[in-house]
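so my prof wants the structure for this chain in the tokens format not the other one, which i didnt know existed until like an hour ago. anyway here's the sequence
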Amino acid sequence: MISKKAASITPSPTLAIDAQFKAMKAEGQDVVGFGCGEPDFDTPEHIKEAAIAAIKNGETKYTPAAGTLRLRTAVAKKFLDENGLDYRPSNIVVSNGAKHSLINAFTAICNPGDEVLIPAPYWVSYPEMVKLADGVPVVINASEEKNFKVCAADLEKALTPKTKAIVLNSPSNPTGMVYTEAELHEIADFAVEHNLYVVSDEIYEHLIYEGKHISIASFNEKIKDLTIVINGVSKTFAMTGWRIGYAAANDEIAKAMASIQSHASSNPNSIAQAATIAALEGGMECVDKMRRQFMKRRDFMVDMFNSIPGVSCKKPHGAFYIMMSIDELIGKTMYGVKINNADDFAKLFLDVAKVAVVPGTGFGVSNYVRWSYATSMDNIVEGIERLKKFLHAEF
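here's what i got, hopefully its the right format
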């Protein structure tokens, strides 16, 4: 028999949808996928060349568990130059992707029964990660009317003596919303007042289309000491398969995270670490090109969704996702199937129109589906045309 903890964990719906999409495609079905958050661009050449050079130079051995000193130094410089955050290399822990960094963070700060506040819609893995760390996820609903963001008053209502941390994700997966400086200040003040950790997932920081990214840790030393900043290269540099994420934290937490990682997975891939140095030191021109393409796709999709009767969406300011509301479709019968929630819609949409989207139930909301625009414009046009036909019962 498996453990109670393992039995309580829900599989990732985004990866499940992506696996189903790929299986259908392998069978020769004409399916279009908008599920997985993976840039459709190739990793830039200078990064690939650095990895090849590392192989040829024999950089294929174990490294320190928290990453090479050279990479941790490069990450610290990135934080200083881009975010105004002064960290030493010893405050940096490089992991096998930002997801691994998050697991390390929750494991380092949670005792059994500790509560972690998670605004919804949330990235699907946050609650499961907290449970894996023996914590208790406490979901706070953030409405579309509030641009899917929470404020100190929302956090106050959920606060208990067991509250240990707040999860912050800006730009957000799945909503693409970005917290303003004033909104972040309010949350920072709340965290400091109540001595709460902030796990700040900033993996999409370079994919912002209006405004700019601000790290909550940058306001003062008190909030910096309470914040664990999570980032990585997967989304920014189209390096999803390289599996390099990193975290920055105070001395005690960084040491604990490195110790946990040393027993769980040893060091991150040595070759990918060398490639990441090239990514961080190679300039942002390649990222700017990708961001401009994402912005064009976003604008097109938002305009289209808001012109189609029965669905709608808020315009996201970052990342590469759109949460499409299907509120008007809930309770209706389509193709002989009653749509009770996003799961019903997503399954029917995939079965009938051969379009894969992620139901919002995995993100803590039942009347939205998430579309990723990290795919080609041709796929986007085709997917939207199929949506129109699907909604007009033309299949």
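also thought this was worth mentioning. The chain has a mean pLDDT of 96.
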